[in-house]
Amino acid sequence: MADATAVLFGIANLYVAEFDATNAFPIDTVGAGDFGPVWTKGAGQTPVWAGVGYTQEGVAFNMSIDRGEIAADQVLDPLFRPITGRSVTLASNLIEFTPNNLKLGLGQGAVSTVAAGASTRGYDQYAVTGNVVDAYNTWGVDAQQPDDGEPFRLIAWKGLATSSLQSTLGQRDTAARVPIEITALPDDSVSPARILTLRKYIPATG
Questions:
Q1: In sequence order, what are the residues at sequence separation of 6 or more whose Cβ sits closer than 8 angstroms to the Cβ of residue 111?
Q2: Phi then psi for 159, rounded to 5 degrees?
Q3: Which is nearest to 4 in space by CA: 118, 114, 146, 119?
Q4: How many whole angstroms separate alpha carbon 43 and alpha carbon 194?
Q5: Contact in structure between 129 and 111 (CB atoms under 8 Å)
Q6: What is the mean pLDDT of residues 83-107?
Q7: For a surface tag, which of 20, 88, 133, 167 has the fewest beta carbons within 10 Å of its beta carbon?
Q8: Cβ(94)–Cβ(180) under 8 Å?
Q9: Using an 8 Å Cβ cutoff, are 42 and 49 in contact?
Q10: Residue 37 above 80 pLDDT?
Q11: CA gap 10, 194 in Å, rounded
């Protein structure tokens, strides 16, 4: 039977934390664990969740499975279709054009800050150098279920930025964007390795 309350639409927020084996869903308690601009880290988690700010065109979630084909001379159709590969990705467009978001989108480089002085400007700097080190992060998506306001959450436990950056500055009616694509890799700190987890929350009884 059709269930209109299961239709999911509306705002989704994107969160990130440095990859760590202790990373977990934010706390589930009413109030601190509600849908909103802040994720409170779960018990035992070391890194802090941080929102990436404003986005455009939502957060796309994609999963594709590649299959081979084992055929036999005696039949037209394949006998088996074994899995040969899988890809899980998240994608969005960050419109807060900051050094930190550039680093998140490309998964490379370093961000540093120089404090302002009495007569000199300070700055945040993003630098790409010859030292290439992949940055792994845990990524979370927080949507709100329209029927009861409860969260609908998705976490890619070990994500690597696989984006190509193309941004245009100086347009009057279009924000400069940092397009991001995150490929989820196996987090083998647990067994079996975790890749992606979805949670559809149910209201508290009290």
A1: 99, 100, 103, 124, 125, 126, 127
A2: -110, 140
A3: 146
A4: 18
A5: no
A6: 96
A7: 133
A8: yes
A9: no
A10: no
A11: 28
Q: Sort 146 into a burial class: Cβ within 10 Å, 0-12 / 13-18 / 19+.
A: middle
Residue with tokens 């930025």: 161
Closest residue by Cα to residue 11 from 62, 53, 50: 53
Helix or strand (DSSP H, E) at 110: strand 110-114
* Partner residues linked to 64 by β-bridges: 87
Virtual CA dihedral for 109, 39, 187, 127, nearest 10 degrees? Answer: 0
> In one letter, which amino acid is 200?
K
Measure the CA–CA gap between 30 and 192, rounded to whole angstroms: 30
Tokens for 73?
């001379």
User: Taken in order 57, 141, 18, 87, is the CA torsion positive or negative?
Assistant: negative
- What is the domain partition of the chain in residue ranges? 14-200
Q: Which residues contact 10 (CB under 8 A, 6 or more apart)?
A: 143, 144, 146
64: its two tokens: 């594709």
| Helix/strand/coil for 158 | strand
How large a percentage of the chain has pLDDT more than 70? 100
pLDDT at res. 140:
97
